[in-house]
Amino acid sequence: MKALLAKKIGMTQIPYQDEICACTLLLVDNVYVLAHRTKEKDGYSALKLCMGKKKKNKIKKPLLGEFQKVFGERDYYPAEVIKEVRGEFDPQIFKIGEEIKPDIFQIGEKIDVSGYTKGRGFAGVMKRWDFGGGPDSHGSMSHRRPGSIGQTTDPGRVWKGKKMAGHYGNEKETVINLTVIYVDPENKIIGVKGSVPGPKGGVVVVRSAKRYEVKVK
Amino acid sequence: MDTLIRKVEEKFMKKDIPDFKAGDTVRVYVKITELKEDPKTRKLVEKTRVQPFEGLVLERRGSGLSETFTVRRVTQGIGVERTFPIHSPFIEKIEVVRRGKVRKAKIFWIREKKGKKAKIKELRK
Question: What is the pTM of this model?
Answer without folding.
Answer: 0.83
